[in-house]
Hints:
Blueprint: H1 2-81, H2 88-119, H3 127-147, H4 157-190, H5 195-214, H6 218-223, H7 244-254
Amino acid sequence: MQAMQRLVSFTIPTSIVIVILLPFISSSQEHEKTYKSHTSSNKHSIHTYNHKLHFEIILHGLLLWASMGFLMPIGILIIRMSNTAQCRRRLKIMFYIHASLQLLSLLLATAGAIMSLKHFENSFNNVHQRMGLTLYGAIWLQAVIGFLRPHRGSRGRSVWFFVHWLMGTAVSILGIINVYTGLHSYHKKTSRSIKFWTMIFTGEISFIAFLYLFQDKWDYILKQGVVLGNEPVQPTTDKEISPPDKQKDSSIESC
């Protein structure tokens, strides 16, 4: 009987303690589950954010590479090659190719600028961001200058040509430099190697520069070994050389 009383006296307080502590135990377990779920969710969110940011950085770089590092230099090369064109139709085609490439370059650069301002932290405390901001304004100014082209023979044509040529050359050179600074910023941000992409871009720009310097000398090089008929080559005099404008007009008209 006494044993029964001891068991009852021990069981009742124990039951009371368990009933009191049960909500706290349950709440602690639920809190632990919620914390683990929240931590897992944060890790997934951070991983997704980093992956998305990395993709946007690559896309931004590709847009500006295509714009400043390819289309714009190719457009300048095309208009440079038009100086040796001997046909009005060919000259007109090359001009429209130049204008189309520069317009496409402008659109791609604008898309890259919008992406940069929308998704990236732009404190403008480094060379790449400052140069990029300058280029975004300069490329639009160059486009406006191009659309305001005076007619050939007008009074302001020479001034316009000099400004358009100087601005286009400066924008192209700064754009190429900014591609290199962008690659350096990508390496600094992600710690990934950029040697392969630097070599590819350097080879591409070197090839375009070689064509730019070489193309206008090609006809001259070919004519060095040409002798008309069986007569020896006679030195030319000033009277035999017609003005460049007259030669260019006659060659275009003959075509």
